[in-house]
Each structure stands twice: as C-alpha cells, then as structure tokens.
Design goal:
By secondary structure, the protein is of the alpha+beta class. The protein has a four-stranded mixed β-sheet with strand order 1-4-5-8. It has helices at about 5-30, 35-45, 60-75, 75-85, 85-95, 100-110, 220-230, 235-250, 310-315; strands at about 115-120, 130-135, 140-150, 155-165, 170-175, 180-185, 200-210, 215-220, 265, 280. The longest helix is centred in the first third of the chain and has 22 residues, at about 5-30. The chain is built from nine helices and ten strands. It is about 35% helix and about 20% strand. Strand 2 (about 130-135) and strand 3 (about 140-150) form a beta hairpin.
C-alpha cells in the first residue's frame, strides 16, 4: 500500500477539508476546540505509529509523516496539540512488555481513548536543571518549573521528566490536571500557536508512584538520542509550506503535494546521520524550479540567515535572484 492510499492519509485529508481548514482562521484567534480533538480521536490518527497488538494502526513512518503534513497545513494549532501525543506512545511501545505503566496506558493512548502531552523539553537546558527528580517513598518527587506545556485542558495525561542528582533523566506519567504539587499558569499569549493552550507548570513536590515511571536513562544518552529529533526538520514544516503555496496560488494542481525524488530519501537535515529520515522535498519551496534551484532543498546549500524571513517575503515567490549557488540534485 502506498502512503497516499493509506486509510489514515485519506482520513487526514477528510478532516483537513471538512473540519480543520475551514475553521482554522477562527481557531487561530481563539483556542483549539475539544471537538477537533474528539474528531482526531475517532479517526484513529492518534494511534498511527502505535503497534497493532495494542490497538494502534502500526503504520509505516511515511504515513505518519504525511498525516502530520496534512494536519499542519490545515490547522497548525490542532496539529501541534495532537503531535505531543505521539512521543509518549512511542516511548511506551518501546518499553519492556509487562512494565506496569505500559500495560496501563499503551492501549488507551493507542486507541485515542486518552490524549497525552509532553513536559520534558526543559531537560535540554543542561547544565541548568529546571525540574529536579528525587526518590521519595517508593516513588519519584518532581520539583521545579516546566517552562511550557501544550494542550492544557485537552490532554488526559502527561509524560513528565526530571533530572536526578546523579544526572539521570526520569520519565514518568502523571495526570494532566491541577493536583497537590502541580499548578498551571494562565494560558500563554504567544507569537504563534496561542490557540494550542500552552501553559507553564509549577511543580512543588509532585509525587508519582514508581509504577508510573516508564524510563530512566543517563542524561548524556538522552541528549545523544534527542539531538536528531529536536534539530531535524519536521514534516509539519512541509505541510505549512504546501498550504502557503496553495494559498498564494503559486502551484498548478499538477504540482501540488509533489512526491519524493527518484531516490526517494536523503540524509537527515543536519547531515549528522547517514540513515534515511526525511523525504526529499526539493520542489517544496519554489514550484516549477529544477531540483536544487529553490530557496532550499535537500541538495542545495542553505541561504545565509539574512534571507529569512523579510527578504523572502518581499520577493513574494518571484524568480530566484542572480548568483544562487545551489547545485543540481544528484537524486
């Protein structure tokens, strides 16, 4: 089955056309409605990468990427809320069978019965430790501040992380609601995606039982695994680019949502790994150009930072300036 004919891709297109895109301007000025999340729950998209034996779709990574592109292009705020869910699902799926928290939460998350959020980006702030985790009476106590948490009021559970005195990162699940030891700020007013219900969390002795812990790992190992995930270009970027070009009318229908180049896959956006991670989207930024002649591509040298965003916006997708140093794609 090709990616474009997968049932979840079809369902994502339906949601985008019938619900997300028509209401996106209103949502962007308000908040992501619970009804949007409910429709995504029913669609099965929350289980796109979850194992079949746990009630998920077990779909290939290419399907998950295309679904993310479609949702982000239709309503980026709704995409941003639901995308938090997939990391906890993958972490539980990789956990050892029989682990208490895996047995309790993987199926409800895979089927969409529960929606998860994430609260661990602060671990990247090393050597600062915004959230400290300490052993406490057969469980783990969390103290500190989570600078931002997306989906507050929509999520059922959160994947929370803290760093111990021995530089170990502890990941555990907690209910996503105010409780003893956990207080949420008012929703933040952000430059973009205010509708995604992002808050900060104050943790003052939040205790979770040991049975809620899903992973303990050295901070250095976390950083090594997390680096490609946090630095590579996400599929949502391409979905937004497609939506922008469609809005500007820059692409004829025959060039909309272009397929990958003949080779199909390229190195990661950072060039740090040799494994195929991202589809080659060489025609994303400039419709009708040869691969390697757009503003950016998998095979072209990036422009100096001064090009973004003002100069690019002023050129409004006109022909490339003289002196473009991109090279022809070898795909």
């Amino acid at each position: 089955m090709t990616t474009s004919t997968h049932p979840l891709v079809t369902e994502a297109h339906r949601l985008a056309a019938e619900l997300l895109a028509p209401s996106a301007p209103r949502v962007d000025q308000d908040v992501v409605p619970a009804a949007h999340i409910e429709e995504i729950r029913r669609s099965g998209i929350l289980g796109v990468s979850a194992p079949r034996e746990s009630g998920g779709a077990g779909a290939p990574d290419g399907v998950a990427r295309e679904v993310a592109e479609i949702l982000a292009g239709a309503c980026c705020s709704t995409w941003f809320v639901q995308t938090q869910h997939h990391t906890p699902v993958r972490m539980l799926a990789r956990a050892a069978p029989g682990l208490a928290v895996r047995e309790r939460l993987l199926r409800p998350l895979a089927t969409g019965e529960l929606l998860a959020g994430i609260a661990y980006a602060h671990v990247r702030a090393h050597p600062r430790v915004p959230v400290r985790a300490t052993a406490d009476r057969g469980g783990v106590r969390f103290d500190g501040t989570v600078p931002w948490y997306t989906g507050w009021g929509l999520n059922d559970v959160m994947l929370l992380a803290g760093v111990t005195d021995s530089d170990e990162v502890v990941f555990a699940f907690a209910d996503a609601r105010e409780q003893p030891g956990l207080r949420a700020s008012a929703p933040m007013r952000l430059v973009a995606l205010t509708a995604a219900r992002t808050v900060s969390l104050t943790l003052d002795g939040l205790r979770v039982p040991e049975e809620a812990v899903v992973l303990r790992t050295a901070r250095e190992e976390f950083a090594r695994v997390d680096l490609p995930r946090s630095t590579n270009t996400t599929p949502a970027v391409f979905g937004l680019a497609y939506a922008a070009l469609d809005l500007l009318g820059a692409r004829p229908p025959s060039l909309r949502r272009p397929t990958a180049c003949a080779r199909g896959w390229t190195r990661s956006a950072t060039g740090r790994t040799g494994s195929p991670t991202t589809p080659c989207r060489t025609s994303t930024w400039r419709s009708g150009w040869h691969c390697g002649r757009g503003r950016t591509s998998c095979c072209a040298r990036p422009r100096p930072r001064r090009w973004w965003p003002g100069a690019a916006a002023r050129r409004a997708w006109t022909a490339p300036p003289n002196g473009w140093r991109g090279r022809r794609c070898s795909c």
